[in-house]
């Protein structure tokens, strides 16, 4: 980005929000201070053994920040946050706070190719006999890309460049992902997400699909307008009967406090069904967490014996109290709001402390439900945070068995805070809480292992679990 364009960018930003400070150095130092003073993992992870190296890296990035533009600032800030190896710690851009023109300028330096739509069409037409099977047009959501062999590389590398997208974050000719072909197999070199961050998802390829897991299943060809789905907007809990003996509860997310009442209603409305269903399947795949209150009403159906909770401490700093525990949630029940209010009062009493807000407790019910006789959980590598806390409780019941792959490993530090930096365009997130369970049983980046591991080759995990029999 040359000086003139950079000046235009800052002038545009200034016109959107007054009194902004988007100086990279100021924002970088603000982020460092915020994490150092408010993230309980800082004291655990920065020790006498690594402090010197950590400080050298911090100083090095700070020097780069002193002459970086806002886009470069995002990348180097994420590089610093990645040192903590905590998936709850992150930073992103609030695109709603920026005009489309500013967003386009923001990403104008991203890798581009000389391929154009017309040039690519001619290539596909006249080189048809010589094309690699993966070359062509691929689509997912608003994205349409052209995959073509990169002849500038010695190995068989393919680039996917944008043909059509949202016309703000992504523009034609920008490189969305790269693939490498070796031994007749394709693997991801890198994949850029919606915010242009670089990721390395595993690729599952078939003649008509490129499955990047969390980053979408791309299909060959173009999509008609009615076929374009802008992500999974409905993450609400769902319940259905599979057969006379089996029912399925699906939880795509625990993120919304509104889900608490929804689950309570589903459980009440289907009380008779749950009490007469022998097998309950609970699908937590891709559930990134949220509130532990969401699954509480299911606990009586899972319970067989007293269950120990994980317990948790909260770093009760003024910033954490203000940004994480002073928030009102409309629509929650009076009992939950009362609990939230009491939490706020307790934290204010213990300001400045790593306070034992959630002592290890024992969950007890007066009786054990006859049905369901068994409860099966489905999990994968994206099952995280509060969903993992649910698993830690469920594992203590003799009714429960976990199927799938290891979970995300995002349970050692919890209670995520969302905060702003001097430049409002940046959003910083980090946990304010620390699991007591994790002190002796760390799970970060390891995850909870399933009782029965399921291969990706099994197409329908629900059907598999439904008919599963102990060996």
TrEMBL record:
Report keywords, A-Z: Signal
Instruction: Mention one GO biological process in which this protein takes part, according to its record.
Output: proteolysis
> To which species is this protein native?
Pedobacter yonginense
Q: Which InterPro entries match?
A: ClpP/crotonase-like_dom_sf (IPR029045), Tail-specific_protease (IPR005151)
User: Tail specific protease domain: from which residue to which, for each copy?
Assistant: 248-453
Domain of life, per lineage: Bacteria
Put simply, this protein is called Tail specific protease domain-containing protein
Gene Ontology molecular-function annotations: serine-type peptidase activity
Q: Which residues form the signal peptide?
A: 1-19
Q: Which SUPFAM superfamilies match?
A: ClpP/crotonase (SSF52096)
Q: Does the keyword Signal apply?
A: yes
């Amino acid at each position: 980005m040359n000086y003139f364009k950079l000046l235009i960018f800052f002038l545009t930003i200034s016109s959107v929000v007054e009194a902004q400070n988007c100086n990279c150095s100021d924002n970088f130092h603000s982020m460092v201070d915020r994490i150092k003073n408010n993230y309980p993992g800082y004291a655990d992870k920065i020790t006498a053994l690594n402090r010197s190296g950590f400080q050298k890296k911090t100083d090095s990035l700070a020097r780069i920040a002193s002459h970086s533009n806002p886009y470069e600032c995002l990348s180097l800030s994420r590089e610093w946050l990645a040192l903590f190896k905590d998936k709850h710690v992150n930073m992103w851009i609030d695109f709603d706070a920026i005009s489309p023109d500013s967003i386009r300028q923001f990403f104008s330096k991203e890798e581009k190719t000389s391929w154009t739509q017309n040039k690519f069409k001619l290539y596909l037409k006249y080189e048809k006999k010589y094309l690699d099977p993966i070359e062509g047009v691929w689509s997912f959501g608003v994205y349409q890309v052209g995959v073509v062999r990169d002849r500038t590389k010695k190995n068989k590398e393919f680039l996917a460049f944008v043909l059509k997208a949202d016309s703000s974050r992504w523009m034609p000719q920008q490189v969305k992902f790269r693939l490498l072909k070796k031994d007749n197999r394709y693997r991801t070199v890198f994949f850029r997400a919606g915010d242009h961050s670089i990721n390395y998802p595993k690729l599952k390829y078939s003649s008509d699909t490129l499955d990047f897991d969390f980053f979408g299943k791309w299909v060959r060809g173009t999509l008609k307008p009615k076929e374009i789905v802008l992500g999974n907007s409905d993450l609400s809990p769902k319940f259905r009967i599979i057969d006379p003996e089996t029912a399925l509860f699906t939880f795509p997310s625990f993120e919304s406090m509104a889900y608490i009442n929804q689950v309570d209603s589903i459980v009440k409305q289907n009380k008779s069904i749950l009490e007469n269903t022998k097998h309950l399947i609970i699908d937590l795949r891709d559930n990134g967490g949220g509130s532990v209150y969401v699954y509480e009403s299911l606990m009586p159906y899972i319970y067989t014996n007293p269950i120990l909770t994980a317990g948790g401490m909260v770093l009760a700093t003024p910033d954490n109290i203000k940004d994480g525990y002073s928030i009102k949630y409309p629509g929650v029940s009076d009992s939950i709001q009362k609990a939230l209010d009491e939490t706020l009062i307790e934290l204010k009493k213990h300001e400045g402390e790593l306070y034992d807000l959630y002592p290890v407790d024992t969950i007890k019910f007066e009786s054990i439900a006859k049905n369901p006789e068994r409860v099966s959980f489905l999990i994968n590598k994206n099952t995280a945070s509060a969903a993992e806390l649910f698993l830690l409780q469920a594992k203590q019941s003799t009714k429960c068995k976990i199927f799938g792959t290891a979970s995300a490993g995002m349970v050692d530090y919890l209670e995520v805070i969302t905060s702003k930096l001097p430049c409002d365009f940046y959003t910083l997130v980090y946990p304010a809480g620390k699991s007591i369970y994790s002190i002796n049983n760390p799970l970060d980046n390891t995850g909870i292992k399933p009782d029965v591991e399921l291969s990706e080759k099994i197409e329908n995990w629900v059907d598999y679990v439904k008919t599963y029999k102990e060996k």
